TrEMBL record:
Signal peptide (residue range): none
Gene3D superfamilies assigned: Hypothetical protein af1432 (1.10.3210.10)
Lineage: Bacteria, Pseudomonadati, Chlamydiota, Chlamydiia, Parachlamydiales
GO molecular function terms noted in the UniProt entry: 5'-deoxynucleotidase activity; metal ion binding
UniProt enzyme class: hydrolase
Protein name (record): 5'-deoxynucleotidase
Length: 183
């Protein structure tokens, strides 16, 4: 069994691993760790709108770890996944065996993948909204193809308040938050 410090080094790989799908849209340099952090923040904001019981700790952990397997498998974008398949079962077996917290993290990832619990649905929405934010920023920098994904991504959202946020992303300039402070 590996030590907690080994797991922290493995998690650190996510900061070095760039998200591959943006290569087709002008090569934005966003790491998987950057994506996971903002996904966690979005999940926290979205969860405040839930009117059903939920476990915030589970939401935040699920958001932080949702792309952890990519430390070993790499980031396979939508096109890659048509031709390459990561051996997720081997990853799950090895990770659960490698680390003291491995089994509980794999259980969280399984719940996320199943997408049935309210916590998993919130994190899935947060994951998609994070992508929509990056695409909006790309569009503002001149990449006209960036927003072609918006409708497809919006159709996958689970909650009405997530869909409202997705629509707001289209209308709000990404620099508004700081430009208003300059006036």
């Amino acid at each position: 069994m590996l030590h907690d410090v080994d797991m922290l080094h493995e998690i650190g790989q996510l900061a070095k691993l760039k998200r591959s799908g943006f290569d087709y849209l002008g090569g934005v340099r966003q790491s998987v760790a950057e994506h996971s952090f903002r996904t966690g923040c979005i999940a926290h904001l979205l969860s405040s709108r839930l009117n059903v019981p939920f476990d915030l700790n589970k939401i935040l952990l699920m958001a932080l770890y949702h792309d952890l397997p990519e430390a070993r498998t790499g980031d396979l974008n939508t096109l890659n996944k048509r031709y390459v398949q990561a051996d997720e079962q081997a990853y799950e077996r090895e990770f659960a065996k490698d680390y003291r917290q491995g089994f509980s993290i794999i259980a969280l990832l399984g719940e996320y993948k199943a997408g049935e619990s309210v916590e998993a649905k919130i994190v899935k929405d947060a994951d998609l909204i994070e992508l929509m934010l990056v695409l909006k920023e790309l569009q503002e920098k001149g990449c006209q193809n960036a927003l072609l994904w918006h409708e497809r991504l919006s159709s996958k959202l689970n909650f009405d308040f997530s869909k409202e946020m997705a629509e707001e992303i289209l209308t709000v300039d990404s620099s508004r938050w700081w430009m208003q402070k300059q006036v």
